[in-house]
Amino acid sequence: MKKFSIGLFLIWGVVQVSAQKDSIYIHAKLSQDRKTLEINQDIVYHNHSDKALNSIKLLNWIAAYNKRGTSLVYRKLEDRNNSLHFAKQEQLGKVLELNIKTKENQPVVLPNTSEENLFLNLNEALPTGKSIKFQLQYKLQLPDKKFTGYGTSEQDIALKYFFIVPDHFDPENISGRDYHDIEESVNFNTYWSVDFDTPTNSFIQSNLEQIQPNSFKGYLDSDPEFIISKNNFPTIKVNTDDIKTEIKFGYNISKQDIQNLEFYLPLQLRFIKDKIGFVPEQLFISEKFRAKEDFFGNNDIKFWKFRFKLFSDAENTDLDYFGIISKKILDESIITDKQENHWFKNGLKSYLEIQYLKKFYGDAKLLGNLPETSLLGIKPLKLFHASRVKLLDRYGLAYQYIMSQNLDQKIDEPFSVLSNFNDMAISSFETGSLFSYSADKMGEEKFNNLLKNYIAENTDKQAYPEDFLDQLAKEEPSTSYLKGFLKQKNRVNFKLKNFRVNNDLLDIKISKNTDEAIPVKLETQTRSGDRTSYWIETKENEKLKTVSLPSQDIYKITLNNDYIFPEANYRDNFLYTKGLFSNAKKIKFKLIKDIPNPEFNEIYLNPRIRFTNTYDKFLIGVNFKNQSLFDQKFLYSLTPSFSTGTGKMTGSGSVSYSFLPAESVIQRLTFGVSGSYFHYDYDLAYQKNSLYSNINFRKNPRSTVSRGLGISYTYFERDLNAKMIANRDYDKYNLWTVGYGYTDNQMIHEKSFSLSTQGMEDYNKITAEGFYRWEFAPRQKLSLRLFAGYFVRNETRNNTFNYGISRVSDYSFSYNLLGQSASSGILSQQFILADGGFKSFIPGTVNQWITSFNVDSSVWKIFHVYADAGVYKNKNNPTQFIWDSGLKVRLIPDFLEIYLPVQSSLGFEPGFKDYGKRIRYTLVLNLSTIINAARRGWY
């Protein structure tokens, strides 16, 4: 108690000299089991708004860990992490006890402590500029550290965002702010005094200055964080002429890394100070901060027992920690609301990285030293354009990758709705590229001086980055476009249209697709490699500009080389002035998918060997296409192949074009044609030719919801055997199909719905399907499916187009069956979840209507039980009720599964002599399906 009283005396001394700065005193006692904190806390809060306050909001963010349904839980589920959703009670975080009194020792009526925002009603309004003191006593149950990186674990305790504090970004105390685990600062420009009472043999590291072993005091413009551990983590001190900084780490570092850091940190701090004018005397790097802010893409590649290094250990340390240190310094020197202005500090971090890479890694490649790896004396990666891409190009390439899918977002999109990939590609990389582009245009020294002044002017107060853009535009008018550029998804494109030789000059025509006055960097190159750069100013509403330059043996002309500006299309930024491809693009043939080289029209020739079905067996062929690792609007693919099963030529081809409107309810509108020729039975071939159009509707890239609408016309022609001819089977038919699909791939509640209609001259039918899958426990799921099909008109000659009960009639050749026409044997036992979806071999098809219900539930590990029930009716026959049940073994979930029928309308099936022939299986050999499942949570 004596220690507590001394602490109160000290803090009141500080408060007297801190004027309008808030003060928080905390005494925290950690329990022996390291799971609870008992806290005595004083808050001196000033009214920073321009009106009197009748209530004060305190953030109780530990409540985000308290129950299902919080914003934190939902965000983790979006990231494909269900650990918090399924957490046990003892793993959750919460306030166990809370008492709040005013300075006059008057108790405050408490709101629900399970809420993240505590609004405290005041007995008297708090005038502008006046302060109020709250005395808090509460007990925290710390959450498990595995959820967010903050909380308790066997190794250490990480404390951040757990103490109850005011929200300085809401001076009027009216708006709720929930915890999303996005490292946003909420309590800035505050004096802190924190004392800990911990079990013996505990060490504490913090971003606050340590006064005594367990005592920390000082002003912070960011939120305090503490690491309590049984280990004493390292500290590195940098002491040069004008930089004296102590870097404290909240994790263990190898001796080799410490040696590397002792060499690189002084260089990095000097570089950063030269750019922004500020380096703090103390930096604290937590393990979570390191993982979030280290350099992306330099990690070693591990495959089986092999390990391939892209960069040396020293280079990795340099690259990783430059980004970490840069972002930490920016966080300590600039106060912004991360939700609204995340792009400013993220962009400045990337700007600093770009400048650092230009100086020290200008010739480094994106793949580092990996292309030098030899295999049997050959360096195979040298064949790829990716091996020649510069490390600096990663900033433009990341934007190109996500933009080509129309999944990019506005730079100033609220941070909580940015996808994880766009956090990097848009908020950081795109913004950093724009800052670097502006600095290149106006001169780096002028840009850096402007940045230094802006940071100095906004020390210890909230900064509004649009003010920086205003100052930038005033200093360099050609950057005036930036302010509007942030507020929309951009598809700016500069194009080299052509050139003309005019005596000793080249008249170069440049077009742009925007009315904004955006400068463009033009570069000329001679055959000997000499380069000359020119900045070309453009005016508002000027779509076409002609530039005259001395020819001087110019061989190549380039716009915005090395992805320095976030353009929509770099493929029209190159022209050659001499040779066969003068005023045109060169053509290049490549063997394997690669990062696209915008300088060429690339055609990929991919040898292919794949098993398709038991009739064609292995197909050996070559695929000609223009699709690289990045999506393109215009795509073509042609795959002639030799069928080893029939000894004949088969193949497929397609051409499509997609419209990708940046700001529309439509994300992608695709028109295409396709054709294929394969076999569906022994010596029986089919042709399939389609015209189609698909609409993918706009989605929030963080959302798991997708919606689409499709329409197609398909013409089929197939060979018939004698029996099929006798049965008057269809050799030619055409189908019209219109369908709508909705999917929501949530981690806990996955659901989908589809509705379609299909018709031809002999029938019209309507089909609907709904699916729901609930993960009721970790890796334990219950699946429900409802199917309904109805023939509006059915005048067909046979059962070709009927609904299936236990087998699908694949008349559209779209299910990739191994044995399309198999009626017995292992191939006939393949199961496709379509139509009725029954696993037991219930005979017959449906030519009028059917409704079925399929249930599947986890039992233990890979073992599930299933049950199906349905009602159907055929023409001139009574309604039939059918059902089945059994056991499912999920060897590879959703890709390889075995169905063992038990009881059904047919009886007790294990008692049948041919039970082995009644076992079903699913086998999916679609690589794209696996890739789409793997990338969920990123975008």
How does this model look, in words?
This protein has 939 residues and is an alpha+beta fold. 18% of the residues lie in helices and 39% in strands. The strands form nine sheets. It has an 18-stranded mixed beta sheet that branches. A hairpin with a 2-residue loop joins strand 44 (896-904) and strand 45 (907-908). Helix 8 packs across helix 9 and helix 9 packs antiparallel against helix 10. It is globular. It starts with a helix and ends in a 5-residue tail after the last helix.
From the helix content, strand content and strand pairing, which structural class follows?
Answer: alpha+beta
Radius of gyration, in angstroms, nearest whole number: 33 Å
Q: Classify the helix fraction into a percent range.
A: 10-25%
Calculate the mean pLDDT score and round it: 92
- Summed up, the helix count is 13
* Low-pLDDT windows of residues: 1-18
Alpha carbon gap, first and last residue: 53 Å
How much β-strand is present in the residues? 35-45%
Largest sheet descriptor:
18 strands, mixed
Please give the number of β-strands. Answer: 46
Shape summary: globular
Oligomer: single chain
Top keywords for this entry?
single chain; 939 residues; alpha+beta; seven-stranded mixed beta sheet; 39% strand; disordered N terminus
Question: Any chance you could write out the topology, listing elements then pairs?
Answer:
Layout: H1 2-17, E1 22-30, E2 36-46, E3 53-59, H2 71-78, E4 94-102, E5 117-126, E6 131-141, E7 151-152, E8 156-159, E9 165-166, E10 190-197, E11 203-206, E12 209-212, E13 215-220, E14 226-229, E15 235-239, E16 244-249, H3 255-276, E17 282-285, H4 287-293, E18 301-303, E19 306-308, H5 313-333, H6 338-360, H7 394-403, H8 420-442, H9 444-457, H10 465-475, H11 482-485, E20 494-502, E21 505-512, E22 520-526, E23 531-536, E24 544-550, E25 554-559, E26 574-576, E27 586-590, E28 600-613, E29 617-625, E30 634-643, E31 648-659, E32 666-681, E33 684-697, E34 705-718, H12 722-726, E35 732-745, E36 749-759, E37 763-777, E38 780-794, E39 803-804, E40 845-846, E41 849-860, E42 863-873, E43 880-892, E44 896-904, E45 907-908, E46 920-923, H13 927-934
Parallel strand pairs: 1-10, 16-17, 27-28
Antiparallel strand pairs: 1-2, 2-6, 3-5, 3-9, 4-6, 7-8, 8-14, 10-13, 11-14, 12-13, 15-16, 18-19, 20-21, 21-24, 22-23, 22-25, 25-26, 28-29, 29-30, 30-31, 31-32, 32-33, 33-34, 34-35, 35-36, 36-37, 37-38, 38-41, 39-40, 41-42, 42-43, 43-44, 44-45, 44-46
